[in-house]
Design goal:
Elements lengths: L1 H13 L3 H34 L5 H23 L3 H8 L9 H23 L2 H5 L7 H18 L8 H7 L8 H28 L1 H14 L6 H39 L7 H20 L1 H21 L2
């Protein structure tokens, strides 16, 4: 995360100055090129290792699947260096052609999505997480505080923007119209209804997988089983994830692509109906961001997480 924050600081300086702009493009190109080369090498070498008996069939399949997607992510990052492609992309999402911040965002998004998709296809994530230790407050803080810093430095805090313009860029000011507070509160039961509806479908279509998702979530968040801990967890996730995804990314990547990245971040669900649930909620939160700003998204997200955590305690 410190490397990513450093790249964004460099990229934001690159919006104004030539040398950091060139360095940002070189850094992004090197990352993409390395991903492409490493992906190809692993895809080629893994079958040779299999033929020598160094890996079994399952390990071969996992390595090749991850390698292919990593290579694709690297290729996409390199292709975005081409000006006509940048101009074509700018017609779909609000990424400025030639912008070093836009370029590093595309590279990171492409590599992140590629790695997540490859890993989820290659490894049974739910199985792997069954033996994981429960998350602690420290785990969550060490995970989320860098994400929050990434949001602020990513939009140019102290490089291109002072504090107040940064807050405006993240959608945290000005205050939304009064009726949007009501919309944010009403979104909580709507999101819950959508989530429970998707879970009900999952229980019918893939009951075993849905049980695994529930079991893994119970294990990971077993220490957050009282009202105070649930409220802390909901507020932390609501504030950090909304400032990063809806505040920083939606104005540039749009609602759908941001929702895809948001779902990909929740790796504990694997490729399941639970990931679809997160994606749908991400779309709803993205709509709130476009219409009213990030504060209402924080209220809706935090309220939803808290409600989902408290309901089982109330009806236990």
């Amino acid at each position: 995360m410190l490397v990513l924050i450093g790249l964004y600081v460099l990229a934001n300086f690159g919006e104004r100055y030539r040398t950091p702009r060139i360095l940002t493009l070189v850094a992004g190109g090197v990352l993409s090129g390395l991903a492409l080369i490493i992906g190809i090498l692993i895809a080629v070498i893994s079958p040779l290792r299999y033929s020598l008996g160094q890996v079994d069939a399952a390990q071969l399949r996992a390595a090749v699947e991850i390698a292919i997607f990593v290579a694709i992510g690297g290729l996409l990052g390199l292709l975005y260096l081409v000006p006509p492609i940048q101009r074509a992309v700018s017609r779909v999402v609000s990424l400025k052609p030639g912008s070093p911040v836009a370029y590093i965002t595309v590279v990171i998004a492409a590599l992140f999505l590629a790695q997540q998709i490859g890993s989820q296809l290659a490894v049974n994530v739910l199985d792997a997480l069954k033996n994981s230790p429960p998350l602690t407050v420290s785990d969550l803080l060490f995970q989320d505080i860098p994400l929050l810093a990434l949001a602020f430095f990513g939009v140019g805090l102290f490089t291109r923007r002072s504090f107040r313009p940064t807050m405006r860029r993240l959608g945290l000011t000005p205050r939304p119209a009064s009726y949007w507070w009501l919309v944010a509160l009403l979104a909580i039961p709507v999101f819950m209804a959508v989530a429970y509806g998707i879970e009900a479908v999952a229980g019918v279509v893939t009951p075993a997988t849905q049980k695994e998702v529930t079991d893994v979530s119970t294990i990971l968040f077993s220490r957050f089983n009282n009202p105070a801990a649930i409220i802390f967890l909901g507020l932390l996730a609501g504030i950090v994830e909304e400032i990063l995804f809806r505040g920083a990314l939606v104005p540039r990547l749009g609602i759908i692509l941001t929702a895809i990245l948001f779902a990909a971040l929740h790796t504990q669900y694997g490729i399941t109906f639970a990931s679809l649930e997160v994606f749908v909620l991400g779309v709803g939160l993205g709509w709130l961001r476009v219409k009213s700003g990030t504060v209402t998204c924080i209220i809706a997200h935090a309220g939803y997480d808290i409600a989902v955590g408290l309901v089982p305690l109330i009806f236990k």
